[in-house]
Amino acid sequence: MKPLCSILLSLLVVAFCAQEQSTAIGFYTTGLEHYNHQNYKDAIAEYTKAIELNPNFAEAFFQRGCAKHNAEDYKGAIDDFNTSINLQPKNELFYKQRASSKTMLKDYNGAISDCDEAILIKNDYDKAYALRGILKIEMGEISGCKDLEKAGEYGYNNAPIFLKKYCMK
């Protein structure tokens, strides 16, 4: 009888965890809907509910960071991107988005380091090359033009515009 109780208890725990996960996903999905309608305050609230139910939900931290970034809470965005990176350290998008928030706070060296990390993870990450190139140029480093060229090679559509603006004199 004891093994049967143990099995039933295990099944109940698994079912409860699955229910919490689906609820977290439900809040996350609702957050995405708010985000897509540029309702960042409500998106942040929904992502927060998802995170409360699943504190290891890297994508919820990431999306909440994106919503905070768009709501101009760059420090809060960076905090969420830090958590998403801690949970999934090999996701290049997390680094690139953190670089964007650091750029808004004028932490250009930190943003370049994040772009470097994103490119280490995904060597052909066009947007990371583009951001890093623009930041380097803004800091007076001509090597930024090479990054913009790489961005164009990897498919970044605006690379020719930036190359013309910054690199062709």
Percent helix: over 70%
How many helices? The count is 9
Any low-confidence stretches, pLDDT <50, length ≥5?
1-21
Strand content: under 5%
Distance between the termini: 83 Å
Instruction: Give the number of domains.
Output: 2
* CATH 4th-level superfamily of the largest domain: Tetratricopeptide repeat domain
Topology, number of strands = 0
What is the CA-atom radius of gyration, in angstroms?
A: 20 Å
**What is the CATH architecture assignment of the largest domain?**
Alpha Horseshoe
CATH topology of the largest domain: Serine Threonine Protein Phosphatase 5, Tetratricopeptide repeat
Q: Specify the overall morphology.
A: elongated
Give the mean pLDDT.
90
Order of helices and strands: HHHHHHHHH
Main sheet overview: none
By CATH reckoning, the class of the largest domain would read Mainly Alpha
What structural class is derived from the secondary structure elements? mainly alpha
Task: Describe the protein in words.
The protein has 169 residues and is mainly α. It has two domains: 24-89, Tetratricopeptide repeat domain (Serine Threonine Protein Phosphatase 5, Tetratricopeptide repeat); 107-169, no CATH class. 79% of the residues lie in helices and 0% in strands. It has helices at 2-36, 40-53, 58-70, 74-87, 92-104, 108-121, 126-138, 144-153, 159-166. It is elongated and about 55 Å long. The termini are far apart. Mean pLDDT is 90; it is low at 1-21.
